[in-house]
Design goal:
This protein has 20 helices and 20 strands. The longest helix has 15 residues, at 58-72. It is α/β, with parallel strands linked by helices.
Length: 561
Amino acid sequence: MAQGAMPEGRTGGQLLADALVANGATHVFAVPGESYLDLLDGLYNQRNRIELVTCRFEAGAVHMAEAQGKLTGQPGVAVVTRGPGACHAAIGVHVAQQDSTPLVLLVGQIPLSETDRESFQEVDYRRFFSPIAKWVTQIDEAARIPELMAHAFDVAVSGRPGPVVVALSEEMQKHVAAVPDVGPQPVLPPHPGPEALPRLMAMLEKAERPLAILGGSRWSPEGKAAIRDFLVGNDIPVAVAFRRMGLFDGTSAHYAGDLGVGADAGLVQKARESDLILAIGTRIGEPVSQGYTLFDLAGGKPIVHVYPDQAEIGRVHRVVLGITADVNAFALAAAATKRIATPRWSGWRAEVRAAREKQAAAPEYEGQLNLAVALQLLEKVLPADTIFTSDAGNFATWPNRFMHVREKQDFLGPTNGAMGYGVPAAIGAAITHPGRCVLCFVGDGGALMTGQELATAFHHGAAPIIMVFNNGMYGTIRMYQERTYPGRVSGTALTNPDFARFIESFGGHGEVVTRTEELVPAFERARASGKPAIIEVRTNPEQVTNRATISQLRAQASARA
């Protein structure tokens, strides 16, 4: 186009599709609806630049987009229709908010002329999504599409990343406007202030028992390598925040474990004993802080908090030093500092690591399947770049405790505890990185919440391996039930299909594991099949957690009574 020339007119639907391209979107995860037919038509024109992934349920579509946002650091994009479609999508928005994942959700809307009549499927999306989204807007004029879409992508990645929801008036998508596309603007990330690193290092030199906690999102490979060099170079033990195992090599002698729901009591005790906490990227939220009991809220425990959004620093825990900075910028700056020559806490670091190794040792369990041993055998044969996805539930504590995510592997899990996340996240990961092995951990409860999305995997040629831990119950709730109301089982028993036959009905690969030695061969056959696969691991329902049986929980409850 010649300089100063006016662009040709385009429909709103085409402008929306072109805006996605201009802002770097490569995939759109969608459940089609009549409220955005014109956008679908615009995406047809961009089919060689954007892959339209047709999903079966709106929550699954948003989980897939959120998984892509976690993996790439750029906003994943989902599109859903109005009313019920938007309501189904809300859970994925909540995941993106609490997990600080960049996401853009486009929602078809009723015709603007019908507003406030309780028209068919009418919802006020600004009011509906505002508590769980970073920003919510509605586009009613086609000429504003480039402006508002570019801003949506900017907001999703700025400061603390998060979800943005954009409602699209139906008739606006048909209107024609002659406006130029608007792409991302180059913005340098916030860097640590000039006093930040000298003050941090001065505190560190006086410490006896430091502990780092890594969390947050949008870590780049360079950033993860830099923070590793800084922490390992200064011999600091490193815990990861809830479901952030992909941020640090679990096999490292400096790895302390995951500090979240179900954290090892030994690690929690070491966190209490620490005299300096380096909280880098984590909000220090409820799971990490063990229900806001781990650290003194008034600042009794010295905490250095590094976070990209200043409003989060000191929000709950008062800190001795807050550093507003992009996590990668901070990591690179920290790696450039002079290392402490002879850290006085090397013995402390060894103690913290010993506590992790003790917790990872596989106990003896009754029955033919020792899940701890089976998972540790599986770990040895997994590809070096495996992507793990996890659903929510008691089953997740088994791989968290007994397996180790390595440096080139990724781990995606919902820090907001959303069941139904694991399967669609695995599909989104497999579509984003088709050459990598994707292994999903999911319970039998979560598997049937969004398991229908396996149809999406077949439709788009993705081949994740889904490991279903089947104990015939909502295990987490049963655990709490037995602790509080022992023996009074109510609402937690489940009836399940044969999961192997379920995937076979699609043409996929199914396996059933009942013994310790069967898991690795089952995985290898599933991997070799090249198809979407389910490995159903039939676990002992009596062993409701990796630390206690139902009988033990009942006995403990009786002792307390």
